[in-house]
Amino acid sequence: MPFSATRRVSLGLVVLAVLCLLLGDFEISTHDPWQELGRLALGLIRPDFGAVDALGEALLRTVAFAFVGVGVGAAAGLLLALCFHRLWVRTGCAFIRAIHELFWALIFLQSFGLHPLTGVLAIAIPYAGIFAKVYAEILDETDPSPGRALPRGTGRLSALLYARISQAWPHLVSYTAYRLECGLRSSAVLGFVGMPTLGFHLASHFAQGHYAAVGALLLLFYALIASLRLWVRPKLLPFYLLAAPFCLGTGLPILWSNVSRFFTRDIVPAPLRNGEGLEGLGPWLGDLLLHQALPGIWNTLLLSQIALVLTGLLAMALFPLISHHFTGRHLTGRLGGGLGHGVLVVLRSTPEYLLAFILLQLWGPSMLPAVVALALHNGGIIAHLVGRRSNEIVLRPDAPRGLDRYTYEVAPRVYGPFLALLFYRWEIIMRETAILGILGIATLGFYVDSAIQEIRFDRALVLILITAALNIGVDILARRLRGYLRLRHTINRQSC
Length: 496
Prior knowledge:
The protein has 496 residues and is mostly helical. The protein contains 22 helices and no strands. Helix 6 (116-140) packs across helix 8.
């Protein structure tokens, strides 16, 4: 594919984002945002770990929910991967992974309340869909030759274990470890809907203006993510997986009558529930689409398009922080590279929801906190992956330095992989954009949360289904663009 096609697609995305920028609301409405930002920075410099009650318990719950949710999701995903060639399995997996963990949590809160099962299922269900897709891709890429060499009469299970899984095992383990890091982020964010994880305490202390406690919680979360490889060792994994369910807590008992009522009555559209029949369903659905779904879809698309382009700009600006071609291999360069690596770790380790929550408190309600949060997190992830890819490039001895090296030597060579990663994150950015509505931004999540607050679960379910369909549509569009630009081979699975 000629470079002109890549240039046209890139320019089209930028022009569309500029148009969206003109239509969005990006006002800073707080009286003195810089003073609040300074107080938060001071809290990070002078954290007060003693100000957080039950800090150890919150940390333990965060880790436990991540291990159980990811463990269940990985086991289910592996089973689904074995039959991923079936259309109904692929479709089902696409649907469940298109719904954000917080939406799943809001659904199960209505059935199970603040029970550990709510948090576990909220992580396990979408992760099962993600694991199924990635595991199937890994297994499909294995060399078929060992399978042909097996003795005649070898069972399907034995052939699978010895010919395919044995080859794919290192890749399966590597991706599962990465997904555990994502699970810790998801587990922390579940605290914002009431689960007893780090996010619950962070939201509480932020609301009270206790920035020293907020700083302590953030630093603890970053330390937890950064030290993951030190304490998650293969020999210890069985112990963690066995112990984690006993560390979830008990929570409130499940009222199974509420569960039955939710699935048999509460989510049934009101006209059908009230005996109005199909005649009343059309006006009810039309009103929902006109006053909630369409405004939510518009704002979700608007915000996600701006965030997508800003993510790309940040990624291309930040990847030199960890590229050997710009940091060098001498002592000063290694120190600079280490600092750059730390910056990108913080950006990619902080969940978009958490970043948006913090920025909303500092800047007030508008689209600006959401766009910046999405761009910082996703830009950090893509910059990290593109920087690692750039280290594989071999430059000639007389290659230029400085800005010319970036412009003429490195950036053109990493632009294809960068664009593939950006398109791969598109559906994820859309999914996160929708969920940020829970914070008060008028995306689809705002109307979902409003419907739940009004105990209109039937409306909430329709809006969640619309959100999933929108995410699937964007994923299909991104895949077609990757195919049009011939970028499939450049995708890194850790961009999931």
